[in-house]
Amino acid sequence: MILLTGTQRDRLLANDRQRDVDHIPVVKFFNPFGAGVWLATELDEGGDIMFGLADIGCPELGSWSLEELRLIRLPFGMGIERDLLFTGDFPISVWAETARETGSIRAAEHALYRAGAAFARTSADTESRGS
């Protein structure tokens, strides 16, 4: 699997040039067999060092090597994958705080999108009452 599309790479590089911004994650990588989720917000000029939220047992903000992710070999000849449906939607600080509170990025994802869906339903109800 291609871990980064050209568009994702361009966005990550652009984010790296904008320091002190609470970026929305551009891409999510995951281990399809167990622990390991990475949300990337930035990619350095060299094209290897990424920054974002990593969770290999404990979610934390930091940097990692894209090449090292590429080289991970899992059972059945598989490797780390890119979540094709991931949209980010929230700044990395929200992801980090929620992951710390819930214990993992995967639990944070469920909590954030459940809260977002509840907010959307409440907003729709409020709008229809106002009509």
From TrEMBL:
Q: This chain belongs to which protein, by name?
A: Single-stranded DNA endonuclease
Species per Swiss-Prot/TrEMBL record: Paracoccus alkenifer
